[in-house]
Structures are given as structure tokens and as C-alpha cells.
Specification:
Structural class: mainly alpha
Strand content: under 5%
Largest sheet: none
Radius of gyration: 19 Å
Number of strands: 0
Number of domains: 1
Order of helices and strands: HHHHHHHHHHHHHH
Shape: globular
Number of helices: 14
């Protein structure tokens, strides 16, 4: 079996470090522009820009596999609706009423949500330590969402943004489970291009309703272009490419460990650019989520004969 070159490994590890940094930056950008760029506008134009950048390399792959796209478009539409359509739009909506730190901590429970939904919908086997991990991570999410106050549960006084972010994580979990159940045999570039294009179509009617009757959109000024380009290029296209390369090079289990950097980067970036400060509930909730993730993504030991 050929060994992976040191250069390829170095690129993989570098990309896997940059990916959670870009994702953390996505939450910070969403929070920083929430008063100047409406969430639905940010989501819609982010993916429009990403699609325009991707088309020169993605469209030829789509043309080559067009019969598969036509045959599997219902599956692709469902996948696009939950990922490009729902997940990022809900993340941006959550930024109106919660912090970048909370967004990132709740977002960190995605592997746990995927494991939980795979157990419920696909009947995947859950080992005892994984069940404990799921419980710990969900408890950590509740600590973050309630801000460590028991009275929040008795009064049902949750921050809307935290609950919206939980819904976003749920949508990404459904996307991941559907991706396994309805695997589409497309080249990665063709898959991503079709996924983004269909996602833009899913967002479009909601964007138009928001534009015409609610927010009125935003005025495109020079200061609006950098955040739009950032969310299109870095957490969108580059993070996706880096993540896929890392998974293919070192494996999904090792790559998943780099997700633990997400709240670390978010804490630093939110502190530097938004003035957000860590509270006791962030440490408690983050620790429970970390322990839960470690148990949930832990591989079972193979007994030697």
C-alpha cells in the first residue's frame, strides 16, 4: 500500500486547521453584519457568488454527467434544501439574537446530531460509550442554550437565536443522513455545483418575500463586498475543498478531531472583533460537548485473535 507523501499530509493538516477557522469566521461575520445585511440576503448572495466562482470548473463536470443529474434531481433537491438552503440561512438568522460563540458551540454538536439521527432513521448501531457521548453533548448544548440558568427551562425563556441554531444543526444532520441513504454518483465538483444551484433556487422565494415585504434588502456599498466574498469563498468553497482533501488523505475519524478547533477559533475571533467574552456556561457547556464528541466519534478497538 503506497504511503502518503509528507507534502500531501502537510497540505491535508494545514487545510484541516484552516477549515474550522473559516467556519468560525462565518459565525463572526454573520454576527457582525446582522444589522446591515439581512440574513436571507447574506445567505442568497453568498451562494450566488460561490456559484459564479465555481461554474467555470464545475459546469463542464455537470455537462458530462447530465443524465445522472436529471435522473437524481429529486434527491439532489432534498440534499440542497437541507444543506445550502436551510442550514446556512438558519445560521445567519440565529445571529440576530445570539452570539457568535453560542452559534459555534451549538454548531459543534453536528457529529452528535448525525449519530443520533442515523440511529433513529437508519437504525445504525449505537455502542454504550457513543450513547453516553450523545447524552453528554446534548446536555452541553442545553447548558449553552439556557446560558447555564435552570430558570430558562421553567420559564421557557430561550433566546430565539439559540433555538434557530439547534434547528440548523438538525437540518445538517438530516442532510448527512440523506446523503448516506440517497447517495448520488456524481463527481465532487459536479455534485457541489448542482447542490449550490438548487440551494439558491430553494432560498430564492424566501429571499424575495424578505426583500419585498420585510427587510427591503440592503444597499450594495464597498464595505458590504468583503464580508460577502469571505462567506462565499472561505467557509463555502475553500472549507469544502480542504475538508474533502483532509478526509480522503487521513480518514474521517482523524479529520473529525479538527472540528474541536471550531469553538477555540470562534472564542478568539469573537473576542477580537465583537468584544464577546467567555462565561462560565461556555466553559461547562463546551467541556460537555467536547467529551460527548470524543465518545461519539471514538472508534471501537479491534480485538486481535
Amino acid at each position: 500500500m503506497p504511503q502518503t507523501s509528507g507534502r500531501k499530509l502537510g497540505l491535508a493538516y494545514t487545510g484541516l486547521v484552516l477549515t474550522p477557522l473559516f467556519w468560525a469566521g462565518n459565525a463572526v461575520i454573520a454576527r457582525s453584519v446582522v444589522d446591515t445585511i439581512p440574513p436571507l440576503s447574506l445567505s442568497f448572495w453568498r451562494w450566488c457568488l460561490a456559484l459564479l466562482i465555481l461554474l467555470p470548473v464545475g459546469l463542464p463536470k455537470v455537462r458530462q454527467q447530465w443524465p445522472i443529474v436529471i435522473q437524481r434531481w429529486p434527491s439532489m433537491l432534498a440534499l440542497a434544501a437541507f444543506s445550502v438552503g436551510a442550514f446556512n440561512t438558519l445560521l445567519y438568522l440565529s445571529a440576530k439574537t445570539t452570539t457568535a460563540l453560542n452559534i459555534t458551540l451549538v454548531n459543534s454538536t453536528i457529529p452528535v446530531m448525525v449519530a443520533l439521527l442515523a440511529w433513529i432513521l437508519l437504525r445504525d448501531r449505537v455502542r454504550p460509550f457513543q450513547a453516553i457521548g450523545i447524552a453528554l453533548a446534548l446536555l452541553g448544548m442545553l447548558v449553552v442554550v439556557s446560558r447555564g440558568e435552570l430558570a430558562v427551562f421553567t420559564r421557557l425563556a430561550f433566546q430565539p437565536g439559540d433555538l434557530i441554531m439547534v434547528a440548523a444543526v438538525f437540518c445538517w444532520g438530516l442532510f448527512s443522513v440523506l446523503l448516506r441513504r440517497q447517495s448520488v454518483p456524481l463527481h465532487p465538483l459536479a455534485f457541489l455545483t448542482v447542490q449550490i444551484a438548487l440551494g439558491v433556487l430553494v432560498i430564492l422565494p424566501f429571499y424575495l418575500l424578505d426583500l419585498l415585504f420585510i427587510s427591503g434588502g440592503f444597499e450594495l456599498a464597498p464595505d458590504k463586498l468583503p464580508p460577502l466574498l469571505y462567506v462565499a469563498v472561505f467557509p463555502g468553497l475553500l472549507a469544502y475543498a480542504f475538508w474533502n482533501h483532509g478526509v480522503n488523505t487521513i480518514g474521517p475519524s482523524k479529520a473529525a478531531m479538527f472540528m474541536y478547533l471550531n469553538p477555540v477559533f470562534a472564542a478568539v475571533l469573537a473576542g477580537l472583533f465583537l468584544g464577546e467574552r467567555l462565561s462560565v456556561f461556555h466553559f461547562i457547556g463546551g467541556l460537555l460537548i467536547l467529551l460527548g464528541l470524543l465518545l461519539t466519534t471514538r472508534e471501537p478497538r479491534v480485538r486481535r485473535a
